[in-house]
Design a protein that fits this description.
The protein has about 775 residues and is an all-alpha fold. α9 packs parallel to α11. The chain starts with a helix and ends with a helix. The longest helix is centred in the first third of the chain and has 79 residues. Helices cover about 70% and strands about 0% of the residues.
Length: about 775
């Protein structure tokens, strides 16, 4: 342990010399007894050692301290030897730095002396420059004055050169304007007065030439403006120049209007003369009018304001009245050109033409608000409404053409074994064609309200056009016209010599109107409201249910007329068969008459035809023996044997009395009542008309025994086949009972045929 402590202790003096680390010095508490610490107290240490240590320990401590002192001396010598060269080098360096510093101080003194000399020289140079600048300014003023005097002297020559015909009068005016104030200021001097008088003479001559040029009809608006502007600079009277400006501009604009009018045919108030087609389309016409007339009018209005605004004698609304007269003529010419658009043509071309017209007119209105804003907007609105009206007429013509195609298809002869298009196909083609054409028309009309069209922002096209022109004037009007036209096939009498509408066409149109009432009208109105949305505060519109009611009324009238036509056709056969037969002299019946077979065949064909377009409908529950029910010459199929117990054999029953009694207890049959939109109702109506006609014809004939039996056979045959077509078999049976009762009443020898024989004949027939 002694060796270890002896090895570390020699570093104590160095540590005391350089001091302990800062952290250790801060942490260690002051200890006066620590021989290696900074707070060592020798007197206190010796007192402590003498009082605490024995002699032997004191001697040992003395020997230890001696060794440490010798070691410390040795370390100090070693440190000195090792750093001796560094100490010598540092001393030399410091000596050299002192020499360099003294040299730098000498150089700085020299530099300061030089700067002082330079500052003195600069002051002298600055004073010299200021003196030279002052003299130069004085010289420049003298030179400028000389140049001004020279320029004033040269003014007449320059004015004469620039104001000469074909030269540069604008430069002459600028030169005169610059010199005029100086000449006026010094005109009391004779030389300056002479220059001024000569200049005035030259400019007066220029003013006369400009006046003469102003009367030249070949001047364009730009040249006219320049000429008037130069005259105003020459202090000519503004009121006279304003009058001449408007006169010259009016003549030029009138010529442009005359050129536009030359492209139009002469006006024909009677409207009887044939109008040739226009030489160019409407877009070219509007382009020429906009670029020539409207463009020049805008340019002249802007020039007028820049020239005469605020000048005395040039106000009073002259420009507004001048422009209003010319624009009114231009609107009239454009109206006449629009009237030549008799066909539909290209709607996009018309919209582009109206858009360009409106844009150029809007630019004119920014300069002249009173130049016809309302008239221009009304012209565009009338053109759009007129095109919508033409589209309505085109839709009507298209529908009539489609009807013609349908009639031709229905009337076309069919080769054997080849069937033509059925009624469902014709109806689908007609409906899709008309609806497609209507949607195409709406797409064309929608061009008038496109976002990129300037006039679409007008209040008319946001409200009234969408409702009154498109929805009411086009869509609603077309639907109502369609309903009236189709209904006219049933209501209107056929023209003399004109073929009546075929029954199949009546049936097809009835189905078309019924489909319109169910779905098409609602779809068309919804589509129209989406493409042309009406405003909340706009005019009232026709409600959809009102149109649906009209369509259903037309369908009902057509279907009723179909029943009447088909019933009349069958009734005509029955009438002729009754009126052309000798019912008194006829032979005993052996067959069913051919006309009854034809009636059943025609009713069957009608059933097939109606079934193609209308649903089956609801039938009343049939009896189990409908096709086998006995047909008797006594009312209600009641044979006289059923009433025999009430009467004596010698007094046979009066069949006429039985018929009248039966009518009291039977339901009344309405022959011409409106039919429902189903097949059984249509067939029931036709059968009622046919059998009612047969009944009336039989009532007017006188029959023999065999005539009565023939009626009995024919009636039973009709009963076998017609009951299945009617909504209620009792209607057929009741009418046939009346026919039999009437035949028996009109028979001279009412002896009926046995029922078994009647059945046998009908089954064989």
């Amino acid at each position: 342990s002694g060796t270890g402590s002896g090895w570390r202790r020699p570093h104590g003096p160095l540590q005391r010399y350089y001091g302990p680390p800062a952290a250790e010095a801060a942490e260690a508490a002051p200890d006066p007894a620590d021989i290696n610490g900074p707070h060592f107290d020798p007197e206190g240490f010796l007192t402590k050692v003498r009082s605490e240590c024995p002699l032997g320990e004191l001697l040992a401590r003395e020997a230890t301290l001696g060794r440490e002192i010798r070691a410390l001396d040795s370390d100090m010598q070693t440190l000195l030897y090792e750093n001796y060269n560094k100490f010598i080098s540092a001393t030399d360096t410091i000596r050299k730095m002192k020499v360099d510093f003294r040299r730098m101080e000498a150089e700085m003194d020299d530099l300061a002396a030089n700067m002082a000399a330079i500052s003195t020289s600069s002051a002298r140079v600055s004073a010299a420059l200021q003196d030279r600048h002052r003299r130069g300014a004085q010289l420049a003023g003298v030179q400028a004055l000389l140049r001004k005097l020279q320029s004033l002297v040269e003014v007449p020559g320059r004015l004469r050169r620039w104001a000469a015909p074909g030269a540069e009068p604008a430069r002459a005016l600028r030169c005169h304007a610059r010199a005029r104030a100086v000449l006026r200021h010094y005109r009391h001097l004779p030389s300056f007065r002479a220059i001024e008088d000569e200049s005035h003479a030259i400019m007066a001559d220029l003013a006369q030439r400009l006046r003469a040029r102003l009367r030249d009809d070949t001047l364009d608006p730009k040249e006219l403006t320049e000429c008037v502007e130069m005259l105003l600079q020459l202090e000519e009277p503004p009121e006279e120049l304003c009058e001449e400006f408007l006169s010259h501009a009016g003549a030029r604009l009138e010529a442009e209007l005359a050129a536009l009018e030359a492209e139009l045919p002469p006006a024909d108030p009677s409207g009887t003369a044939a109008t040739p087609p226009p030489a160019s389309d409407i877009l070219d016409f509007v382009d020429r009018g906009s670029s020539a007339f409207v463009g020049n009018l805008c340019l002249l209005a802007a020039s007028y304001r820049s020239l005469f605004e605020g000048r005395p004698g040039a106000g009073g609304g002259r420009l507004e009245a001048f422009a209003a007269t010319l624009t009114a003529r231009y609107f009239e010419l454009l109206e006449r050109r629009l009237a030549l658009e008799r066909g539909l043509g290209d709607t996009s071309l018309l919209v582009r033409a109206l858009d360009r017209f409106h844009r150029r007119l809007r630019a004119l209105l920014e300069l002249l608000p009173a130049a016809g804003a309302e008239a221009g907007a009304a012209l565009v609105a009338r053109a759009a409404r007129e095109r919508v009206d033409r589209y309505l007429r085109a839709l009507q013509t298209f529908f009539l053409g489609c009807l013609g195609d349908v009639r031709q298809a229905l009337a076309a002869p069919r080769p054997p074994g080849k069937e033509g298009p059925g009624l469902p196909d014709l109806l689908a083609t007609l409906a899709s064609s008309v609806l497609g054409q209507l949607k195409a028309v709406l797409a064309y009309v929608q061009l008038f309200t496109a976002k990129d069209v300037a006039f679409a922002s007008l209040p008319y096209f946001k409200g009234e056009f969408c409702v009154e022109a498109v929805r009411e004037g086009l869509v609603v009007s077309f639907v109502r016209w369609l309903c009236r036209t189709t209904r006219g096939f049933a209501d209107g009498p056929a023209e003399r010599g004109a073929p009546a509408a075929p029954p199949a066409l009546l049936l097809l149109l009835a189905r078309l109107c019924l489909d319109y009432e169910a779905t098409t009208i609602s779809y068309i109105l919804t589509l129209t409201d989406e493409q042309f949305p009406p405003q909340d505060t706009g005019p009232a519109v026709t409600p959809g249910p009102a149109l649906c009611t009209e369509a259903r009324g037309a369908a009902q009238r057509l279907l009723d007329h179909y029943v009447q036509v088909q019933g009349a056709a069958v009734a005509q056969m029955l009438r002729k068969s009754v009126e052309t037969r000798d019912w008194l002299g006829t032979v005993e019946p052996r067959n069913v008459r051919a006309v009854m077979k034809r009636v059943v065949e025609d009713i069957t064909a009608i059933d097939v035809q109606v079934g193609q377009l209308f649903e089956e409908g609801v039938r009343r529950a049939q009896s189990s023996d409908s096709s086998r029910r006995a047909f008797s010459v006594y009312s209600s199929s009641r044979a006289p044997g059923r009433y025999a117990p009430s009467y004596t054999p010698s007094a046979p029953m009066d069949t006429h009395l039985l018929s009248n009694i039966q009518k009291l207890f039977s339901e009344r049959i309405d022959i011409f009542s409106p039919v429902e939109f189903n097949k059984v109702s249509v067939l029931t109506g036709i059968i009622k008309i046919s059998l009612k006609t047969l009944l009336e014809c039989v009532r007017l004939r006188t029959l023999g025994r065999f005539g009565l039996q023939q009626v009995q056979v024919d009636g039973h045959y009709l009963q076998l086949y017609l009951w299945r077509f009617a909504a209620d078999e009792r209607v057929v049976q009741g009418l046939l009972d009346e026919v039999a009762a009437s035949a028996a009443h009109r028979c001279l020898d009412p002896v009926p045929m046995e029922h078994s024989v009647v059945e046998l004949i009908c089954e064989r027939g």
